[in-house]
Structures are given as C-alpha cells and as structure tokens.
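For reproducibility, we list the full input for the fe (ii) ion complex.
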Amino acid sequence: MQDHSRYDPVWRAAEPYMRVRKNDVHLPLAFHWAQALLDAHPEADRDICSLAIMLHDIGWYSIDMERIIDEGFRSENFLTSDVRYLHEAEGVRLAREVLGTTGWAEDTIEAVCEIIDGHDTRAEPRHLNDRIVRDADKLWRYSVIGLSIASDWFGGSLKQYAEQVERDLPKFETETGRQLAETELARSRAALMLHVL
Ligand SMILES: [Fe+2]
Ligand SMILES: [Fe+2]
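The corresponding predicted structure, in tokenized form, follows.
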C-alpha cells in the first residue's frame, strides 16, 4: 500500500481552485485511478503522474461555468475549443504556483506542466507518464459518479453517455486502463439499472 500523504500539502494548496466544474470530485477520483495504473506500470514516474493528474484541470477555475459547458462540452469541436486551450494554459500557470509554494523541485514542476499543457488538445501523448495521466483522466467517466456528472455536461441521458464511453474504450492508451474501464462500466450499468432504463 503506497503512502500518498506527501501530496496532502498540494491538495490543500489546490483546493481553492477545485470548486469549479466538479473538480473537487473529478480530481480525487482521477488520482485514485492513476494510482491503480501506476501500480501496474512501475516504470512510470509516480510523483510526476500523480501531481499532473491532481492539477491537470484546475485551470477551469479561471473560466466562467456557462462558457465551460457551452464551448468546452456542447460545441461541435469541443475538444479543440478556445476554452480547452485556455484551461490548459491556466492549469500550467496555477500548477506552477501550487507546486512552487509546496516546495517541489524545478525539474518535477517542468515535467508536470509539460503534461498539463496540451493534456486535452495534444493529438498524441509524448511518453508513458503522459499516457498514464490520459487514462486516469478518462477512467472516472466509467464510474457511477462520473457517468452521472459527465452526462449532465454533455446534455444526454445516462444510457446514451454509457454507450458513448463504451465506444471510447479503444481510445485507452494502456491495456490496464481499458480493462479497468470495461469492468467499471459493467458495474455502473448494473448499479444504474441501464439494462431496464
Ligand atoms: Fe482537461
Ligand atoms: Fe480531466
């Protein structure tokens, strides 16, 4: 069992930026998924991946919630919308502040910010740490909570969103991530009675 208490000061420093767009739910859940992926991939860097997933979306803090939903989720090219680039740039700025005040080394800060910058808009991941963060970011959508929250953002039903995330299974970067997602989706569908509803 890993001890994650060294990240507690980072959570506390990031908390003021987390009460936007359900990041106070998304970021801790994605962090736990990242730990499962890191257990299966010991060759990845645990600090860099953990810090990147914890802070990757705090840049949404700087953007109005109406814009986040209209442009960042419901527009035609939502994944390359202006607000998507903006939340990445703001995420880098705020992550530098949070990691600087909590005493992390400059090379760790650089590596974390390199992942945060472009985490949604970069076509291909650059390395294993990047791939782990991408999979952890996706995995929460397969949980009951993630399906519930994200289906609201995209404006469809739970059943439609469950079908969407099922179609997205081949997009996982790691086989571990894909398997975890598949298992979690089956559990969530049963819990939400999606075979009936
Ligand atoms: Fe993001
Ligand atoms: Fe995210």
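The pocket of fe (ii) ion (ligand 2) is lined by residues 26, 56-57, 137 (CB under 6 Å). The radius of gyration is 16 Å. Both points were considered when choosing residues for closer inspection.
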